[in-house]
Every structure is written in structure tokens, then in C-alpha cells.
Amino acid sequence: MSVRNQFNRDRVSFIAFFFLYYGTTAITVVFMPLLLKSKGLSPLEIGGFLSTAPLVTLVMQPLWGMAADRSGKTKLLLLSAMCGLLLAMGLLLGTEDKMLLLACYLMYTLFSCPIIPMMDAWNFSYCEQKGDNYGSFRLWGSLGFAAMSICFGLFAVGAGEAVLFSFFAAFIVLAAAALVWIRPVANAAFNKKRGYGNELLQVLKDKRVWVFALFLLLAGVPARSVDSFYGIILEGRGASSVLIGVGWALACLSEVPVFASAQRWIVKRGSRFLMTAAVVFYCVRWALPLASDHPGWMVGIQLLHGLTNGLLFIAAMHYMKELVPSALRASGQTLLMLFLFTIPGILGNSLGGWMLDGGHETGLFVMASLLSLGAALVWWLTTPKSRGQPV
Description:
With 391 residues, the protein is mostly helical. It contains 17 helices and no strands.
């Protein structure tokens, strides 16, 4: 096979994987809270369920990342995780007992937590070697998520667990098939004299990493506390499952132009500036639901998802790349996911569930907006402005 054909095969396979796998995440992000509610759980119990998953991720995600960096067998680890994911989802959808639900959900988390960070690290290395743009791949993930949000809302949710699992299984199997076709990408090896642990310790001694971590926590906690309960909040305002799916579809479609143009803006303005802009947009996004209780208004606000979640994520990935050597790329991506999603998920899911269970929906949005403003101030005041440092 010619180099050009191999390049095209790798590129198409990456695109297919992002589209298909992110499509399956629509089940957990959009409809998992509604699914748990339909099985008799209260908002407080749902918040507890969603908070236990990041605890598993907190422990297991770094181990998956270390295994990928040390063994170099990212493809094998990803395929193993996807097989476990398929089994866990089947068990989760088929049980009604609350303790069994929790066990299956934790099993699902165990196998889902490494897939996105390992795949992002793999694709990022591929883009560096081929001179390609990560955003041009990641936008297909947003398109897949948007498409499946609508499909699940229209067809699968009301049709029962069997149909939902059929959708999920088909997409996981196809994503695994796309993964098999991608050639491994060789990263720089870590310094064996110093060892993996010493290399990682050097990263963790960098003060910039911990300032970055604080910023991501302040931005991530309000985002997780609202996003995890978006479907329940919207349902409480009179929305159908179809409208909830449309809201998430609009959110993901709004990420497409952001991912498509992110590389140009990062070169022009720097990742530091773009992360600050993203949390300022978050501040506005969380304040807007206070203006109206109409479900259509909440759906429209989702158009800011690209300028908040999408912009923050891709700018943070570029900043983390500057802090972590390429030999520790999977571990660096794992740290990013821990600080932006996992730990904020533990805190935000508990906080969101507690506030909604107590009838404090307005207070939830006020808190989210103020924390986002605090994140912007902390980041802008504590990070270097010099062009000679990663921005």
C-alpha cells in the first residue's frame, strides 16, 4: 500500500472512530440521568451515582494512561476497554436493583474512562507527525454526538433497553473495526535511565501544572454540576426527550466551527487567552437560564457549548502538550481529563444533585456563573504573559 493510501486510510479510520465512539457517549451524557430516573432514583440518588463514577476514574484512568505510555500497546488497551464497555452497558440496561445498577455503572466507568484520553493522545501524536490538525478530527466526534442525541431521543429511549443496547452495540463494534485499521504512532521513548516515574515526577513538580489544575477545577465543577442534570432540568421545564436530544445536538454542532478553526486561533492568540475567553463565555452561559423558564430558551443557550466546552477543551489540550514531554503524552492527557472532568465530576455531580433535590435550581446557575468568573480571574492573574512561555 502506498504511503498516500496508508495516510488516507489512517485519516478516514480516525474520523470514523471519533464519529462512532462519541455517538455512543450520547447515551451516558444525555440520557443516563433520565434512564436512572426512570428506574426510580431521585435527583439526589442520581447525583450520588454520577459522583461515584469519577472516583473509579480518579484511580483507574492514570493506571490506564501509564500502561499505554510504558507498553506502547495503546490499540490493544483500547480494544480491551471497548469489549468491557459493551458487556457493562448490557448489564446496566438489564437490571433494576439499585445496588446492581451501581455496580454495573462503576464497571461501565472502569472501561470507558481510558478511551477518550488514550485516543486523543494517539491522534495528537499522529497530527504532530503528519502536520495535521487535531480539531479537524475532533469535530467529527461532535457530529457523531449530535446525530446520536437526536436518534436516541427520537427512537431509542422510548423503545426500551433492547433497542437502546442495539444502537450502542452497533456503534461500539463499528468503532472498534475502525480502530483496528489505524497504524500505531511511535512517540519518543521516556528516558529509561531516569525511568517513567521520575519523568512523571518532573512534570508534577512544575508549578504551572498545579495552577492549571486549579483553573480547570474552578471551570469544571460548575460545568459538571449543570451538564450532568441538563436533561432533568429541561424535563422539569416541560421538555420532551426529543427536545432534550435536540438541545445536546445543537451543543455539539456548535463545537464544529470551533474545532475547525481552533488551530488558527491558537497560533494567533495563544491557548492561554482562549481558555480565559472560554470561561468568560461559561459565566454568561450559566447566567442566561435565569432570564426565562421556557425550555426553548434553555435549548437555544446550548449554542454556547462550542465557545465554552469546545474552546476550553482544545485550548487546554494544546497547553498541556507544552507542559508534558511527548513520551508521556497519554499520561498528560489523563491528567487533563482528571482535572477538567473527573474531579470536577465528583464535586459537581454531588453539588448539582444536592441543590436540585432541595429545589435550588436558581442557586445552581448563580453558583455556576460565579465560579466560572472566578476561574477566569485566577487564570488571567496567575499565568505568565510572556510569549517565551507556553500560552
